[in-house]
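Hi, here's the filled form for the chain we discussed.

Project: internal
Contact: R.S.
Residues: 712
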Amino acid sequence: MTRRISYILLLILCHCKLFAGQFDEVKALVARRAPWLSGHVVFKPMANTGKDVFELSTQNGKLIIGATGPNSAAVGLNWYLKYYCHRSMSHMGDNLAPVASLPVIKQPLRITAPAQVRYALNYCTYNYTMSFYSWKDWERELDWMALNGVNVMLTVEGMEAVWQNTLKQAGYNDKEINDFIVGPAYTAWWLMGNIEGWGGPMPQSQIDNRKLIQQKMMARMNALGIEPVLQGFYGMVPSSLKNKIKAHIIDQGAWGAFKRPEILDPTDPEFSHIAGIYYKEMQKLYGNNIRYFAGDPFHEGGKTDGIDLSKAGAAIQAQMQLYYPGSIWVLQGWQDNPKKQMLAGLDKSKVLVQELFGEFTNNWEKRDAYEGTPFIWCTVNNFGERPGVYGKLQRFADETDRARKSPLSGYLKGVGIMPEGINNNPPDYDLMLELGWRQEHVNTQKWIEGYTTYRYGKSNPHISKAWEGFLATIYQSLPGYQEGAGESIFCARPALKINSTSSWGTFVRNYDSVKFEHAVQELANAAPALGNSSTYKIDLINMARQVLANKGAIVFKELTTAYNKKDIPAFNKSSAQFLKMIKLTDDLLNTDSYFKLNTYLKQATTQGNTPDEKANNLNNALMLITYWGENVRAEDNLHEYAYKEWAGFMNSFYLPRWQLYFNYLKNNLEEKPTEAPDFFTWERQWVKDNQKLQPETKSRPLNEVVKEIMAI
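And the returned structure, exactly as it came back:
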């Protein structure tokens, strides 16, 4: 009897230790991001009722966080930091300084997440933001994800190793594999079946390093309660595979200037053979405990001729289930994908569709929850990580609430953020993920008060007025299609008539730019109270940058009018003013390392192990933000898709490009006709000539630069 009691006590103690251990990584997160809180927080497990829950209370001077798991505990921690300590972490600066004394929670708080899934990341984020992330960068990223309640996250950092091992078993040599795997800045479009080989070859050391980072990421994610989404096998194969096996392989044609990988018909017997190799290699590298797989056949086009889509979808899912029983296939709701016929052949209980572009689409409604398929409501918000302050905040809140209350609510499984680049517009991502934890319909005018207080550390009347103006301008929720923020004319490829900087962007400012400028002035007026805040400084730079870009559009219109009227003095005055504004933009951005080209070039070089690797990383990084890729004049639509307003880039790339063009126009006006600049060639040569860090220049005082901008 005594032995039995001892055994039961031992089981109870082990059980308690097991539960206590589930919060170890959240405790480590506290130590990394808010060490001043480390000795003052106690985590306690709560019974799991099928929903994620956290509770906050104060007992004996300690913060008590009760939670159903590590993810809920991290959100509880973040809630306390944001709404009690007025502290926060973001992709655009942190406000995590110690508080004088820990705030007491007078009434215990309990919050239950209505969203089962809180998803993060787009394939494109892996390149527009994360191409050259180190483990330190990923550690920070995962901390942010956990604090904001992300519990399902795309993680495709190490897919090169899976493909390399798969192709070796399929009879490929090293050169043939290198011709398929892309360079480090182009992973997204390779995995989406758009390109192959471009930017490569990827060195073996880089493939190995990405594999190790992926393994570390997955271990950390598991400890933080974040489930990884890896790349499933959906039939994408090298275009050279048809030369090695006899099978029904469908040529997918071109994606712009790029030859697409081909599709191995999922109903062909060879499909299960290749899929089997792929998933076995996945298991060797990343384990058997993977519940989510992504992979979109025929993304942004592609050919389906000769394929029975219903049977193809069923075959893809069958192989996924064979090697990972119970796994869920994650599909992008983008354009006409996932195709209706393909969904018809699936076990929809093991599918999750992302309403990708929720700020403008309602395909979840038009297609009756994608013909009765579980889905999540997501926002892209940013394309190409192009600069610009933008976000339809109230739309986020309204549409998620509407979906929850609709007859299709049973299919709604959660929310997600899917930006093409994430280093921008922090309120968009904070709000969107917080909606996964709020039961009520959120009024963003009330929400923004809490946001600004935790972003800057305290409330301020100038800040309140500024953000009231931002909600009425850049962050308003007008209907209509728009791919991200209105673009900067400074970064456009020079011409007299320009409709947009990137091929699918816009110059339209669907807000009152004067009202916005007044709001930025209010933000600037808060400098005496908040000037030492890094988040305030970053926001002020970003908003002033937008003011300057808006004014640049006006000056550009003046200079084109002067040119068309052949008014040489007016043209000279306007063109000089335009160039001065580009230089002033560089001065503004040079006041903080967050907005410097060198910050990102250093990231690229650090991830290279040899001179050749560093050079290829720089080549990849610079191609992506200039002409994007390929050398086909007839298919040059991707230039400036990922343009950046960065110090060192404004004055070394955009400024000389405009100077070249203005000199050409001036010669025309003076009846000294010269050949028009060949920007296609010039941009590619610039990338070759600038694969190095830019010379650093001394920065001017921020308040001085902002004052000059506001006076224009």
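Let me know if anything looks off before we file it.
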